[in-house]
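Query structure, 167 tokens:
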């Protein structure tokens, strides 16, 4: 996968909450000012798309250097690098099928999908087994606090965020 394709599939999210800190905000302002000062020397005859790419790249670089990237919360603790590899494998099989929808590619795609689903199912089962064993251990050693925390995690499941700022 080339660099442009990787950027298209992966959007960077910057940690904008750091802009609430005065030092970080000032550092970001200085970064942007310096980068745009360098852009003023561009030719007027330069292509519009190229100029836009330069501006976009400068903003992204400044944000990455001064703000850093926003860390996404991982909802599935069992999801690891191996799972990412399986997702890439499935994506490649799908791209192959899109480029050439032959019967052979359909079979390849279905086999890869089955493999990925089986892998994820096994990972989930192993994670659940480990969590249940942990709960059993907490019960046996009478660690009531961790036992009830674990039970509540199971009961709650996925809880969507509510946005309390509306009103």
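Result returned for the query:
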């Amino acid at each position: 996968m080339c660099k442009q394709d990787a950027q298209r599939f992966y959007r960077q999210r910057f940690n904008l909450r750091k802009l609430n800190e005065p030092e970080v905000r000032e550092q970001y302002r200085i970064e942007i000012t310096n980068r745009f000062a360098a852009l003023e020397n561009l030719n007027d005859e330069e292509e519009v798309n190229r100029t836009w790419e330069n501006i976009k790249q400068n903003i992204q670089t400044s944000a990455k250097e001064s703000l850093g990237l926003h860390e996404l919360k991982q909802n599935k603790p069992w999801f690891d690098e191996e799972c990412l590899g399986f997702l890439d494998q499935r994506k490649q099989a799908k791209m192959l099928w899109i480029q050439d929808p032959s019967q052979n590619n359909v079979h390849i795609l279905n086999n890869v999908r089955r493999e990925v689903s089986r892998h994820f199912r096994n990972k989930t089962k192993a994670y659940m087994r480990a969590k249940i064993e942990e709960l059993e251990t907490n019960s046996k050693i009478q660690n009531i606090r961790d036992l009830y925390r674990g039970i509540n995690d199971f009961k709650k499941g996925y809880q969507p965020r509510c946005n309390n700022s509306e009103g």
